[in-house]
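Q&A log
Question type: sequence-to-structure
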Amino acid sequence: MTPQLARRLGTYAGAVVVFYVVVRLWFGLSEPSMVQGIALGSLYGVIGVGLILIYRTNRIINFAAAALGAVPAILGLLLHVQRHWNYWLVLAIALVGAPIVGALVDFLVIRRFAKSPRLILTVITIGVAQSLAILGFFIPVWLGARAGEIPNVPTPFQGFHINNGRGQPVLTGNQVSALVTVIVLSALLAGFLRYTRIGVALRASAENADRASLLGIPVRRVQTVAWVAAAVLATLAIFVQSPLIGVPNDATLGFDALLYALAAAVVARMERIGLCLVAGMGIGVLVTASIAKFGSGDYSTALMLIIILVALLLQRGTLARAYDAGVSTWESVKQFRPIPAELRNLPEVVGARIGVTAVIAAGAIATPFLIHRADLPTLQVLPIYGIVAVSLVVLTGWAGQISLGQFGLVGAGALASGGLIANHNIDFFVAMAIGIGAGVLVAVVIGLPAVRIQGLYLAVTTLAFGYFMSGFAMKRSHWIGKWLLPKGVASHLARPILYGRLDLENERTFYFICLVFLLVAILAALSFRRNRSGRVLIAARDNSRAAPAYSINLVRTRLAAFAVSGGIAGMAGVLLAYQQHTVQAQSFDVFSSITLFLAVTIGGLTSVPFAVSGAISLELFTLFGPRFYQQLGSTFIAVVPLLITGPLLIVNMYFYPGGSAEAGFQSRDRYLRWVARRRDILVPSLVADRRVEQAEEAKADVVMAAERHVEELESFDVTTGAGKR
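Response status: OK
Response body:
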C-alpha cells in the first residue's frame, strides 16, 4: 500500500467516524434506523454511479438515470406481486429488459442528438424520463394494480433477521440483500472497467472521446455500453430496494431521488465510483435520520444544497480539468438575427410586424372579456409564468447557466414580500421593490459558485436550491418560514387600490396589471440584450476562455445575468403571492421549475417572445385543457402532460433544435426573401443564410454516410480479419 493511498483511506475512515458520531449525537439515530438508512442510500449510490458513467462518456447529466431501470424493475416486481410469478424468474426478466431499454434509448434518441449542444442533450434526457414514465404509468394498469398503490414485495430473504438485546430487528434479510447487491455490483463493475477490452475502451473514451476516436476506439459503441450499464445498475438497485420501500408508482422515482443521487455523484467528483456508493449510503442515513427526528425529509433536502455547494467549491480544480476535457465542446444554442436593415423600414415588413403585434395584443386584451368570470383567477397565472420565462431566457438562453430551480427565485420574491404585505399592509410598489431586491440578492448568492462552476454543474446547484426553497425555507415549521411567511393559519394578502381607481381585487383589473408587468419584463430583457451588457454576456457564454482577452470580466458578467434574472423572477413571485392571496410552498415546487424549463426550451431558449409563448401555451393547456378532453377519461388526462414533455419534446427538438422559435424565424426569413425578390433588393445576409442552410444539409448527408461506413467497419473483427471485404 502506497503512502498516498494510506493517507486517503485514513481520511475517508476519519470522515466516516465523524459522520457517525454527528448523526448519533444530533439526530439520535438508532442502530436499526442507521442500517435502514445505509440500505436505502445504496439506491442513491448505485443510481449515482449510473450518472457518472453517462457523464464520463457523454458529458451530460442524465435525468433519466432512474427511469432507465424503473420500467423493467416495475414490470418484474408487479409480475411477482400481482401475478405471483417466481421471484428469481422476474429478476431475470428485469435483468434482460434493462439492457434492452438502455440500448434502445441510446440508439433511438441519444445518437440522434450526438452533435447537439450539451444543453439540448441534457434536456432530451428529461424528455426520455417523461417518455419512460408513460410506460411506468401503464404497466400497473395493465397488470391490475390499483392507482397509487405501492404493494409490499415478498422475497425469499424476508424471514432472516438479527435482533438486538431489546428484541428489535437490527438487520433484516432484505437489507442484507440490498447491501450484498451493491457490493457485488461494485466488484463486477470495477473488474469490467479494469480487465475487459470494452471496459478499458470506456475509460479511455471517458477521458477524451475525440482522442479515443482517433486511436480507433469505437466511441459510439462504448457509449451504448455505458447506457446499458447505467440501466442495469438502476434496475438492480430499484429491484432490491422495493422490498424495503415498496414498488415505485412513478417511473422517474421523482426528482428528489435524483437529487440525492446527484449529490452522491458530485461528492465523488463525477468519477470515483467507490466514493459515490459510500456518499450515497451517507445521504440515505441523513434522509432516514431527518424523517425519524422531524417526521419529514425537509432537513435532508436542505442539507443537500450545502453538501453540493461545498463539494463543488472544494473540487474547483478538478472541475476545470473535466470541463476542458469534454464540456468545453459546448455549442451555443441557436441565435436568430434581426430583420436586415435593408428591409426593416419597407411597408410590407412594417405592416407585418404591426399586424402580428396587433393580433397578439388583441388576443391578450380580449380574452378576459370572453371567458367565464370564474376562470379569471386562473387566467392571471399565464402572464406571471410568462415573466418567469423571460427570467429563464436571460439566465439560460443568454448566459448559458442551466437553471432547474427557477421557481426558487420566484419563491424568494414571494417569501420576502408576502409576510410584509399580510402583516403590515405595505404599499404595492414597495412590496414589488422588496420582491425584486430579494430575487436579485438570492440569485447573486446562488450565482457566486458560477464563477468556477460551469454549465451542467450549475444545474445540480439550482435543482438543490429549488428543493431548499420549497421543502424548507417556505414552510412555517422551519425558522425561515416562521419569520418571513404571513402569520396565522388563515393568512390573507389583500390587494390594494392603486391611484384610488384601480381595484386589484377586481380579477379582470389584476389580470391587466400582470399583463403590464409582463410587458415591462420583456422590454427590460430586450433592452439588456441590445446593450453592451447583453453582447458581452453572449460572448462570455460562447467562449469563456477567449472573452477575458477582450477585457470582459467573467465574474461581473455572469453575476449581472443572475441579478437581472433574479429580479425578474422576484417580480413574478410578488404577483403570484397577490394572485393567490397567500404564499404557498407547493406553488414554487421543483416540478413547476422543470416543467417551465421544458416549455421554454420548446418555445426557444434565446428568443424572448417565443419563450414566453411556449410557457404560456403549456400552462394554458395544463390549466384549461382537461375540461375539453375530460370525456376521454382520467387516464388520458394524466398521460397528456407526459406526452407533451416526453415524446413530443424529443420530436420537436430533433427537427427544431432551436425550439419553435427556429420554425418561426425560418418562416419570417422566407417572407423576407419574398419581399426582397419583389422589391428587387439584394440582401446578402438572407442569401448567405440560405446557402449556409443548403451547405449544412449537404454536409449532414455526407456525415451520415461516413458514419454508416464507420459503423460497418467497426462490425468487422480487425484482429482475425473475419468479415473483411
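Response note: Residues 15-157+167-287 form a domain with the ABC transporter involved in vitamin B12 uptake, BtuC fold (CATH 1.10.3470).
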